[in-house]
């Protein structure tokens, strides 16, 4: 049997399909949100690889987050305005992953020294990659919020991304601490 081709040519005219079968322009805000979420998963994958090289135990959590981002994408690709009950059943997104992130944040935060200044993305490769992931996460959230406000996506998706950026920030600090790397602080330049 021959392997299926990776290309379909269906998007060559600048349109793509949602899970509900709608054809929308590739510049539609749904595809912007999907693209930002995909980029976020890729950034987390890179951070996970750097973290794995350092033996961090949280790498499994990052993999779980990437799997959750697939579910985020499924929800985003299923606009509520055109979804049937069968679509909604397959792509629903609950608050449970949000609560799990909060538990992880609390667990790592308890182990960190108090934050007394603004820190810059730094603290070694693992930490810097996690900070980069946090910045991508904020952009993904900014893409998702208008979809939620328009009633096209589940509010728990936006909550998850909001909490995920907090988790990535705390995890970046934790990685720097565990690796014995210094976090660079913001110093206001003199005029």
Considering the protein shown, what is the CATH homologous superfamily?
Answer: Cobalamin adenosyltransferase-like
Helical content band: 55-70%
Tally of separate helices:
6
Average pLDDT value? 91
Return residue spans where pLDDT drops below 50 for at least 5 consecutive residues. none
Characterise the protein shown here.
- This protein is mostly helical and 191 residues long.
- It has a single domain, classed as Hypothetical Protein Ta1238, Chain: A.
- 60% of the residues lie in helices and 3% in strands.
- It has a two-stranded antiparallel ribbon with strand order 1-2.
- The mean pLDDT is 91.
Write the layout of secondary structure elements.
Blueprint: E1 15-17, E2 23-25, H1 29-53, H2 59-76, H3 85-91, H4 96-109, H5 125-149, H6 155-179
Antiparallel strand pairs: 1-2
Helix pairs in contact: 1-2, 1-5, 4-6, 5-6
Biased composition (Polar residues): 10-20
Catalytic activity: cob(I)alamin-[corrinoid adenosyltransferase] + ATP = apo-[corrinoid adenosyltransferase] + adenosylcob(III)alamin + triphosphate
Domain Cobalamin adenosyltransferase-like: 6-175
């Amino acid at each position: 049997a021959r392997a299926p081709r990776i290309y379909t040519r269906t998007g060559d005219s600048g349109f793509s399909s949602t899970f509900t079968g709608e054809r929308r322009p590739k510049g539609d805000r749904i595809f912007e949100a999907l693209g930002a979420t995909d980029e976020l998963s890729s950034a987390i994958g890179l951070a996970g690889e750097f973290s794995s090289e350092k033996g961090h135990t949280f790498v499994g959590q990052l993999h779980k987050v990437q799997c959750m981002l697939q579910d985020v994408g499924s929800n985003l690709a299923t606009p509520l305005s055109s979804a049937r009950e069968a679509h909604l059943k397959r792509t629903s997104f609950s608050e449970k992953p949000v609560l799990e992130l909060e538990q992880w944040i609390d667990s790592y935060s308890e182990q960190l020294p108090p934050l007394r200044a603004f820190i810059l993305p730094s603290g070694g490769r693992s930490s810097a990659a996690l900070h980069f992931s946090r910045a991508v996460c904020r952009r993904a959230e900014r893409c998702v919020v208008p979809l939620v406000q328009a009633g096209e996506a589940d509010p728990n998706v936006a909550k998850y991304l909001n909490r995920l950026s907090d988790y990535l920030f705390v995890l970046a600090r934790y990685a720097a601490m565990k690796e014995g790397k210094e976090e660079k602080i913001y110093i206001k330049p003199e005029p």
